[in-house]
Amino acid sequence: MSDEQIDTIIGDDIHFRGKLKFSNSLKIKGNFKGTIETTGRLVIGDTGEVEADIQTGTLEVEGALKGNISAHQKVSIRKTGKVLGDVRTPDLEIESGAKFSGNSAM
Asked: CA 106, CA 97: separation in Å to the nearest integer?
């Protein structure tokens, strides 16, 4: 997904702690620690480092994620993605080369 299709981007020079709530689309290129709640789309960019429990509609991981995921629609772990945590989603896609350590429930 190109950056032009994303509503909000947290840049790679940003370090953020707290609770994120949004309804459209967000791409994290920087560091985030906390919790994320959305009904929309979350993308963790290839430079993104996230430590959070996530509730989302869809999630695309290109960077590093440590935390548990609950997605209503789909989770995609790209070849550059690293996920450490449990995943609950009806549709899980893991590309060749991606790293996933945890449990999945579908």
From this structure: 22
Residue 18 included in any domain:
no
How many structural domains does the chain have? 1
71 lies in some domain: yes
Could you read off the pLDDT of 54-100 as tens digits, one per residue? 999 999 999 999 999 999 999 999 999 999 999 999 999 999 999 99
Enclosing domain of residue 78: 66-91
Q: What are the tokens at 70?
A: 């609950």
Give the pLDDT confidence of 2-54 residue by residue, as tens digits: 676 888 889 999 999 999 999 999 999 999 999 999 999 999 999 999 999 99
- 19 within some domain: no
- Residue 8's Cβ-count burial label (10 Å; 0-12, 13-18, 19+) is exposed
